[in-house]
Known about the structure:
mainly beta, 5-stranded antiparallel beta sheet, 4-stranded antiparallel beta sheet, 17 strands
Amino acid sequence: MAQKRLLVPSLVSIGHEPGFAVKTNAKTIRVRTFQDGSLASTWETQPSQINRIWRSQWAGHLPASPNELHTVELEGETRPELEGELLFRNAQQQTAVLTGLVPLRDAGFKFSPILHQAHYNVLFEQFETYVVFTNLVGESDLPSRPNKLQVEIRNLRSEVLAVTEIDIGFNSTFLLPVRDLARTHGVRLDQGLSLRIRGGASQFAVFTVFQNRQSGALGIEHSLPPIYFTEAPFNPDLRARFQKAAFGDLRL
């Protein structure tokens, strides 16, 4: 079974320190911090039953980087399924969201492209919505192809209004601001919109973060991916049709 890690994104660019909380029977909690895609720090602690830990504890010696990624390993954890809380705080408030762990793949693993529908978007002037991508390939040789994603901006009738690409780098966090993206491509905000995002060459966890520009407060949404709603990727009779419909026209 592949080792699993909790992926903790950096939200330093919008003024929040990351942390995590986990209930575990592990012997060791190990946190690795990647900056610019490379391992920058490793920190270990002996856990209690319930643990609440912040970046200032595991990587306080490192200047915070907007694209850094933190991964949490639970060495000796015996339960097959486990969730952790992602935590974020500034001087005024704290925010949390529950999420699962993702597998760390072996070196040379060929990642399938992801399909993400970013349909929770708050488009009022005082808010910004960010699609937050965290991705992990580990410390071995990086994949030869770039970690590119195609982003389609769609209206509420699912008509494509604009298409662009982003390259988010490996072992990193990337924040995609929805309002700014739409305005850059001349898309009106008063009619509503969604994003369809496809591609990539790593293991992803994707979150939606809403920030009130006036108070700085955050809201976080973590949707389940399409595999939770369709059996097609696991059904030999349907898999080819699903792959063609989802990715047949994808060119990155």
